[in-house]
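To whoever picks this up:

The parser on our side crashed when reading a file containing two proteins. I've narrowed it down to the boundary between the first structure block and the second sequence. Both blocks are reproduced below exactly, byte for byte. First block:
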Amino acid sequence: MAKSDGCDYFRRTSLFWIITVTLSMGYFTCTVFVPEKIPFESLGPLGTLSRHLVDNHADLMYKGWWAAWAVHAFEACIALKVCSQKGIDSMATRCLWFVQTVLFGFASLGLLIKYKPERPKHH
């Protein structure tokens, strides 16, 4: 079996992080844009905190939502740079890292940073 040269290295982030980040960002999005649809009273302390933030700090929540996506986009740009540094040259693979990092942030970028490509042996 031929060994890969690393130019197409990609690993999907764990299901734990996919679910955690999706639910968290989904909840955050709903609290910012459609808080009337969330049953805050059924969510215990999280609902109480969320209701307080929506009622008293809606502008901060809105800015925080944009900041969270901006951080994910910045991390995705770093992922492209790391791909270059690690010799991942396949455009399709680089796009996969970019999209996954936009969606899941450091849960994806951390996998890429940990990747240690094999160095060719010099004789």
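<<boundary where parser fails>>
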Amino acid sequence: MPSSTLSVAVPYRSPLETFVACAHEMLDPATPEAARRRAEPRLLAVLPALQALGVFELFAIRDPALAEMVRDELEARRQRHG
């Protein structure tokens, strides 16, 4: 695997590395749908850690669909946890 390529299959990555790897995999048109479905829960699972670090206050997600998914998930978590 080239050093510039992150893989969601590699365990024990930081939350930011996991998010970036999953986002790239989900946004790559060559990624099979089954792989996208496997990456999505991994991406969503690291959102609380990234939010706690303030990542979303510093960086904007440029892909509209991904940005909407992240916003929706963070809002749903906020409502569940009051």
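After patching the parser it read the second block fine. The helical segments are 15-27, 33-45, 47-53, 55-58, 64-81. The two ends are 42 Å apart (CA to CA).
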